[in-house]
Amino acid sequence: MDNSTTRRTDPDCLFCKIVAGDIPATVVHEDEATLAFRDLDPQAPTHVLVIPRHHVADVGGLATERPQDAVAVLDTVRAVAEQEGVATSGYRTVFNTGAGAQQSVFHAHVHVLGGRSMTWPPG
Ligand code: AMP
């Protein structure tokens, strides 16, 4: 567990570049620990990515290395869902973890999807 306030960044990481402001994004929410921005390729009327500012590869690493950021990410999910007007109608949160689950950016992130009805099981 890493309780330090030092933030890790990876110079080769796309989402670290968004955190740094080096790559533009449509930010919908930000605080000290997290950033939320619209997905470039939306799969629903609301499709927001919530990430920790600290670089960690996936949700497992987030839970073990930075549990305080895991809590912050979940609270940002709640705030984004309310702000986007999907908190009551319902929304889906997805952490793709590992290449086999279609994770393509290895900086922990959760997809917040809403504004349409969802099916189950997911593809
Ligand atoms: P995943 O496949 O779970 O790793 O999710 C990565 C997501 O990042 C995909 O849904 C992409 O559409 C999205 N994405 C990639 N590049 C950007 C970008 N520059 N700004 C916003 N979203 C992006």
Can you list the strand order of the major beta sheet? 1-2-3-5-4
Radius of gyration: 14 Å
**Residue share in helices?**
25-40%
**CATH-derived architecture:** 2-Layer Sandwich
Number of helices: 3
Specify the CATH class: Alpha Beta
User: What is the mean pLDDT?
Assistant: 96
Structural class: alpha+beta
Q: How many strands, which pairing sense, and closed or not: the largest β-sheet?
A: 5 strands, antiparallel
Quantity of strands, as a count: 5
Give a short synopsis of this structure.
Helices cover 26% and strands 20% of the residues.
Task: Provide the fold topology.
Elements: H1 14-20, E1 27-30, E2 34-38, E3 46-52, H2 59-65, H3 67-84, E4 91-94, E5 110-114
Antiparallel strand pairs: 1-2, 2-3, 3-5, 4-5
Task: Please provide a written account of the structure.
The structure is a single chain. This protein is of the alpha+beta class and 123 residues long. The protein has a single domain, classed as 2-Layer Sandwich (HIT family, subunit A), CATH 3.30.428.10. The protein contains 3 helices and 5 strands. The chain has a 5-stranded antiparallel beta sheet, covered by helices on one side. Strand 1 and strand 2 form a beta hairpin. Helix 2 packs across helix 3. The mean pLDDT is 96. Adenosine monophosphate binds next to loops.
